Here is the input.
Amino acid sequence: MPASCPSLHVLVIAAGSWGTALAAAASSNAKTLLLARDESVAAQINTRHSNTKYLGEITLPHNLK
Here is the structure.
């Protein structure tokens, strides 16, 4: 991202398969926050960087919160 551009922030609401995949893709270019209704899903994303309930053993980017 060019230095003249303001930093981007992305919020994805829903941590199902589509929301998680979208957030993972967005996190490569922007600070990204993924909101999950299920606390266990949120905890797994933040600690293990995966969402096994919806995406199996795919590893998510470490900067995705």
Q: What stands out?
A: The two ends are 20 Å apart (CA to CA).
